[in-house]
Amino acid sequence: MKQYRIVPMTIVLLIVLALDQLTKYLVATQMSLGESIPLLGEFLSITSHRNSGAAWGIFQGRMLFFYIITVVVLIFLVYFYKSEARDNWMMQIGITLLMAGAIGNFIDRLLFQEVVDFVDILIFNYDFPIFNVADSALTVGVVMLLLEVFVTGRGKKQI
Ligand SMILES: CCC[C@@H]1OC(=O)[C@@H](C)C[C@H](C)CCCCC(=O)CCC[C@@H](CC)/C=C\C=C(/COC)CC[C@@H](O)[C@@H](O)C[C@H](O)CNC1=O
To answer: Which residue windows are transmembrane per the record (predicted)?
Structure first.
């Protein structure tokens, strides 16, 4: 139990997933498409947007591709958790965030064949693509796993 912390990780997954679905639901029902609400000047706005593709709108409309990729990613993440994340809380959180993000966008793709996006940031004057909580969880999860493996190096087998 301690080695895998299933209960705490499940709670983290459910919280991230609920936050993702709630924010998407509010944007989809309370805002009209394209409507933008500035939060921090022009640097951060909430803009109601839809994307039937992946990052930067690649693979527009390829739902079957996304269903297959997502199921493969989720199966891999469960397997990777069991084999590599034992006693490694950083890896466990990273994998949990990746799962929450993948499931969050998967629900949108299954229900609407597109994903609701709303976080609109202007980074260094480059209009970064509008994203959502699920994308953030995926990105943070990717960063945590990379840090875990390349920085702390604890991803390696203990000698
Ligand atoms: C975040 C992964 C994208 C997410 O992948 C997913 O769903 C998972 C289940 C996997 C896809 C099925 C397939 C991945 C293809 C590879 C890819 O995409 C390379 C990603 C790099 C990434 C580093 C990890 C950079 C950053 C992205 C963005 C900023 O994220 C903070 C822009 C997000 C906006 O374009 C927004 O419109 C996207 C929309 O919400 C749908 N989201 C997805 O497809």
So the answer is: 64-81, 93-112, 132-151
Which of 20, 108, 117, 120 is catalytic? The answer is: 117
Active site residue 117: yes
Rounded to the nearest 5°, which phi and psi values hold at 119?
-80, 110
Do residues 44 and 115 touch, judged by C-beta distance below 8 A?
Answer: no
112-134 tens-digit pLDDT: 999 999 999 987 767 789 999 99
Number of residues written out for the chain? 159
Whose C-alpha lies nearest to ligand 1, atom 37?
131
What global pTM score does this model have? 0.93
CB of 36 sitting under 6 A from ligand 1: no
